[in-house]
Specification:
alpha+beta; 260 residues
Amino acid sequence: VRIALPMERVNSPAHIVRTDDEAITIAHDLAGRFAAGASSRDRDRRLPKAELNEFSQSGLWGITIPSQFGGPGLSFATAAEVATVISKADSCLGQIPQNHYYMIEALRLDGTDQQKEYFFSKVLEGDRFGNAFVELGTKTVFDFETRLTNKNGELILNGRKFYCTGALFAHWVPVVAKNDEDRVIIAFVSRDAPGLTILDDWSSFGQRTTASGTAVFENVVVLPNNVIDHQAAFDRPTAMGPVAQIFHTAVDLGIARAAV
């Protein structure tokens, strides 16, 4: 098991895509290059760090950010087609951003304007969200043992997560946990935060380079402005669940297209 080091940021800001046609064109252009080494990357488990930098710098990771926050506000139909095109070339590269798009939607639904301004600007600059959602050994998928607690005026995060797709390559690791009121929240943790350890321990048959390993949080200090009430997205009718589902489906569709 290897401890993964934080990802370095690219010095130049990411491109900002403006139209649906531009997004699809960029996706096909990237897919042509990503397909060339996809099989060897999977066979040798060579992690696609350079490819991911090119992918996020292309602007495709920011296409669902609303226009009032500097993004193009493109549809989920376009974003799903982008994921399908990339997944046909390399399903790992198509899978890794799935949680990134999910977290953008979580912020759009329940973040404050200040949180949206800050995190959306980071994404438009080229930052990537990972995820730390799933836990082993709990009775249900929402029975989280990871906790964000208020200790002497500081928010402290402790827990262990499994199947953290994108976390190894991320600049931010959004963590799903429960707070002192037992509500489900998302805490956005900087990838280089003291107390955060990402383990490169993912082993799978297929999609070997998603590096969906383990994330460990030991007394990680979280800023109050980096926390959103995620349970609110499920307390009322929203498209939060379908957003996750459409990107999973897009990856499967890309794999199917490649197989055909």
